[in-house]
Amino acid sequence: MEITNYSDGTVIDYPVALLYGTTEDKNAVDIQCENTSSSKSTRILKGSAFQGRFKVLAELVPGENTLLLKSGSEEKTLKIIYQQNKNPLFVRVIYQTDSSGNTEFQSQKKDDPQNFRSKLDTAMKLMQTFTAERMNDAGYGRKTFNLELDENGNVIVHVVKGKLTAQEYAQIQEEKGDIAWFDTVFNELKESYPLDKARNLVIPAYSRFIPETGKVPGHTALGGSHGQAMFGSANIFTWPDTLNDVVAAFEDSTPIDSANFQDDSVGRSCFWGVASTTMGAALHEIGHTLDLPHSNDAHDIMTRGHDRFNRAFLTREAPHAYNPNWYEFRDNEIALWGPKNAPQLTWNPFLQDTPPAERNEEKVKVLMDHQKGILTVKAEDGIQMIGCFDGERRFWCWTPDRNSKETIREISFNFSDIISQTSPNADVFMFNACDANYQQGVIGIKVHR
Q1: Nearest Cα residue to 323 out of 258, 375, 265
Q2: How far is the C-alpha of 114 from the C-alpha of 161, rounded, in Å?
Q3: Could you list the pLDDT tens digit for every one of the 449 residues in the chain?
Q4: Distances in Å between the alpha carbon of 49 and those of 12, 29, 32, 56, 412?
Q5: Which residues 6+ apart lie within 8 Å of 141 measured at CB?
Q6: Is the dihedral of CA 244, 149, 86, 187 positive or negative?
Q7: Between vectors from CA 182 to CA 176 and to CA 187, what angle results, nearest 5°?
Q8: Is the dihedral of CA 340, 341, 346, 348 positive or negative?
Q9: E strands within 170-284?
């Protein structure tokens, strides 16, 4: 047995590692990882194996962790050191009820235990781990966002009672649109849950599929404005209850009763399809709060790549409504942070392991010479990323050669060359540049086509 993405003594700053590797036994269909340093209920986790490849999660405790991997008669020991992240910036989770305080979410499961806290704990850790491992796979190191954890290492879920009834929120949504409802919730939360050092993911408990209309009041997928993301709860019944349940949840082909429950699965119409799409979509909305736009990369989380969130944790994909067979996907068919969003993400202050420097708008300058049509970026501490966003998709991104030791402090581009790669009807462009200390410079440019 060989672990291919970790070496002994690797240090990470988030609590759940995802291990990739190979086994000699090509017929193995599962693998077990035991954290012998842990006494948590997740001490032993089972992973996915197929044709000599495996993936398995390991929940870590602070300090050194000794992991024992077993598949059939094969065994492998690995040590990983978990040092908690020191960055004060984090992603906060808010479970918002209506004014009744009812925390119950809609569920197709009979006698559902309604354990929303553990579902959100699990989902957020998977999103954090996904980000770290897929950024690492892309060559940027294990960059990921910080989570708000309690003394036991569980994600803190803030249960907040809304000021309005579910019907009143639905009326705002119906009459004025999702953004008006989004803003209503934002205004309720902004004082108690400020966004100066946090990004808020809000899960409304009162999302309900209405069979008679096919509508889902209390559901939306929005993110970005003021650092808030929102995603409805109508499908979280399909999410894994704990890390022990991740593989089972992502292999659960139980059909969705689409006559009575929301089927947010892009036609796969099964529990795992819904779980993958909706967890991936929640991460997509968090991506917007981290200043990422939509993408034109089919597998990017910031486009429909979020439907394939499950594949990051599996070696093959379970049957679903329009494919009755197991599918062995290729490595380039797994959700990721796309090549034009990953550079932006890697320099975002929320993805660092130390406190960011106090913001200094003088450190990075983005300048436009309209007469000459030249865009110039200057940064004393070295330019690390320049991105262009045209209002819908980031089509252009520049980063220095990662193999070069040269520090680039000034660079210029023909503006026409940049916008030729954007949407043909775009007339407003936002440029964002970052330096080596995570300082940012931003400029908006309007053109007349």
Answers
A1: 265
A2: 17
A3: 999 999 999 999 999 999 999 999 999 988 999 999 999 999 999 999 999 999 999 999 999 999 999 999 999 999 999 999 999 999 999 999 999 999 999 999 999 999 999 999 999 999 999 999 999 999 999 999 999 999 999 999 999 999 999 999 999 999 999 999 999 999 999 999 999 999 999 999 999 999 999 999 999 999 986 899 999 999 999 999 999 999 999 999 999 999 999 999 999 999 999 999 999 999 999 999 998 888 888 999 999 999 999 999 999 999 999 999 999 999 999 999 998 899 889 989 999 988 887 888 899 999 999 999 999 999 999 999 998 887 665 678 899 988 888 999 999 999 988 888 777 778 888 888 999 888 889 898 888 76
A4: 24, 4, 10, 9, 49
A5: 135, 346
A6: positive
A7: 110
A8: positive
A9: 198-204, 221-223, 228-231
For residue 385, CA distances in Å to 213, 241, 374, 395, 407 come to 47, 39, 18, 14, 12
Q: Which residue has the tokens 């305080």?
A: 101
d(CA 448, CA 171): 40
Those residues with Cβ within 8 angstroms of residue 154's Cβ, 6 or more apart along the chain or in another chain:
117, 121
Contact 433, 379 (CB under 8 A): yes
DSSP 8-state assignment for residue 336: B
Question: Closest Cα partner for 388 from 430, 350, 346, 422?
Answer: 430
What is the Cα–Cα distance from 106 to 277, expressed in whole angstroms?
17
Cβ–Cβ under 8 Å, residues 88 and 355: yes
Do 88 and 82 form a contact (C-beta atoms < 8 A)? no
Query: Domains in the chain, start-ordered, CATH in brackets?
Result: 2-82 (2.60.40.10), 90-345 (3.40.390), 357-446 (2.60.40)
Task: Report the candidate in 77, 79, 81, 66 with the shortest Cα–Cα distance to residue 1.
Answer: 77
Q: For residues 122 and 40, give the distance between their C-alpha atoms in angstroms, rounded to a whole number.
A: 14
DSSP string, 349-402: GGG-SSPPPPP-TTSEEEEEETTTTEEEEEETT-EEEEEEE-SSB--EEE---T
Per-residue CA distances from 301 to 80, 232, 279, 336 (Å): 28, 18, 11, 6
Q: What is the DSSP letter of 413?
A: E
Q: Rounded to the nearest 5 degrees, what angle is found at the Cα of 90, between the Cα atoms of 86 and 95?
A: 140
Closest CA to 166 of 213, 123, 105, 119: 105
